[in-house]
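Hi all, posting the design record for the shared folder.

TITLE: backbone redesign
STEP: 1 of 1
STRUCTURE INPUT:
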């Protein structure tokens, strides 16, 4: 049973007609019964919490607080020009966009109509703000209609800062299978990763007001609007949150939480440059990107003539309101065997005035191999809170066996040779390196 179908109801008629052998049914049923016996469900079938006690386990203040924390830690700060963020809580804020209010952007595997319950971005900003908050929808998610633009532009011009929330959206399974519009979800496919309808034009209209504009991407996937990265005052990526998403977003926008989320996937400039991933295979080719500049200048490359195979935002990327300096990378052992475990130690300094958290990432590069291998591979990380002005020692262990490969005989081996350990803030922001040798 799945996807709204109930094929099990047809089993009796299939058996009666001879299309389904009874032995197949017996096998399937025996597997279910065996699992229930193993779980002890025949001796004690009611393992759940009694109905009169569920309130003390579900949706407790502790669970709500944890959801808010997880939501905040999953938000990724992509751009922050001239320290636009965090926003002063007393500021006059215009919240704009069809993704800011009216529904929760949970994704599609959710309880029916649950997307209409929760803390929206507007709710969260209003709850945290001590200044004036004005909302203008601007446009619908699914429409090209720009008749709401004047109200949104007026709200932005009257504010100190505009927060524009746009993105992609899904629906619960019932609504999806009823055919209601969505841009992501089960059986929903796209030909590009751009914003749809009037949304990109709304963002441009608000940026054109000249007011500081914070754009929030609310989505379950990368959005390819590189011009927003270049022109917005700040850009925040909020992947599908919990019901506390609006509060968590406000926590980050106002600085109650210093953002520390990192991308688990690279963001491309355009869908035509996909796939894009950090652990690409070593190659003898150099990268030769091109570019079409806003002033009309064309610079031709070979990959992809007028675009680039490099990511707009790479795997592991994510900014902070703090700045971190790496120093003194050492390895506990330089000459190793395949059975050894070594420790990489690096010192990370928060040289800003704000407490922050850095995700220190460790990558390994095999310098010479008998078969083609990825250029680098993530082999460890540590999420480290660091107070303003303080330095923390970060230790990340590495099993040498994990830097092996499958050779041409399909044997997993750790080949002798040199391996470079990199540590840094992302797969493209590598701050220090050291080498160990497998004998």
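Okay, here is what came back for every position:
SEQUENCE:
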């Amino acid at each position: 049973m799945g996807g709204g179908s109930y094929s099990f109801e047809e089993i009796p008629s299939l058996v009666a007609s001879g299309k389904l052998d009874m032995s197949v049914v017996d096998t399937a049923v025996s597997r279910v019964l065996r699992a229930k016996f193993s779980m002890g469900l025949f001796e004690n079938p009611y393992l759940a919490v009694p109905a009169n006690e569920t309130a003390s386990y579900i949706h407790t203040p502790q669970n709500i607080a944890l959801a808010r924390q997880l939501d905040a830690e999953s938000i990724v700060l992509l751009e922050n020009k001239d320290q636009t963020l965090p926003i002063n809580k007393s500021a006059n804020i215009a919240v704009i966009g069809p993704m800011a209010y009216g529904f929760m952007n949970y994704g599609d595997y959710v309880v029916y109509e649950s997307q209409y319950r929760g803390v929206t971005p507007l709710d969260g900003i209003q709850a945290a703000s001590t200044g004036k908050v004005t909302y203008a929808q601007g446009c619908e998610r699914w429409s090209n209609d720009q008749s709401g633009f004047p109200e949104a532009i007026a709200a932005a011009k009257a504010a100190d800062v505009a927060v524009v929330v746009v993105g992609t959206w899904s629906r619960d399974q019932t609504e999806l299978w009823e055919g209601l519009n969505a841009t992501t979800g089960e059986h929903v496919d796209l030909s590009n990763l751009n914003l749809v309808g009037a949304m990109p034009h709304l963002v441009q209209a608000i940026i054109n007001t000249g007011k500081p504009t914070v754009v929030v991407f609310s989505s379950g996937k990368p959005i390819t609007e590189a011009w927003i990265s270049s022109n917005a005052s700040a850009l925040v990526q909020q992947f599908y949150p919990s019901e506390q998403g609006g509060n968590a977003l406000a926590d980050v926008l106002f600085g109650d939480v210093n953002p520390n989320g990192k991308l688990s996937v690279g963001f491309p400039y355009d869908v035509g440059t996909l796939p894009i991933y950090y652990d690409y295979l070593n190659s003898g080719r150099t990268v030769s990107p091109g570019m079409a500049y806003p002033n009309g200048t064309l610079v031709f490359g070979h990959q992809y003539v007028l675009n680039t195979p490099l990511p707009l935002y790479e795997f592991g990327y994510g900014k902070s309101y703090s700045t971190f300096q790496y120093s003194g990378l050492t390895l506990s052992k330089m000459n190793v065997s395949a059975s050894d475990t070594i420790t990489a130690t690096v010192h990370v300094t928060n040289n800003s005035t704000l407490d922050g958290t850095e995700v220190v990432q460790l990558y390994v590069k095999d310098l010479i191999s008998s078969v083609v291998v990825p250029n680098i591979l993530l082999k460890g990380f540590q999420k480290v809170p660091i107070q303003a002005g303080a330095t923390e020692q970060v230790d990340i262990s590495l099993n040498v066996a994990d830097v092996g490969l499958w050779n041409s005989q399909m044997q997993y081996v750790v080949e002798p040779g040199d391996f470079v350990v990199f540590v840094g803030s992302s797969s493209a922001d590598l701050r220090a390196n050291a080498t160990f040798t497998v004998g």
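COMMENT: The mean pLDDT is 95.
Let me know if anyone wants the other runs.
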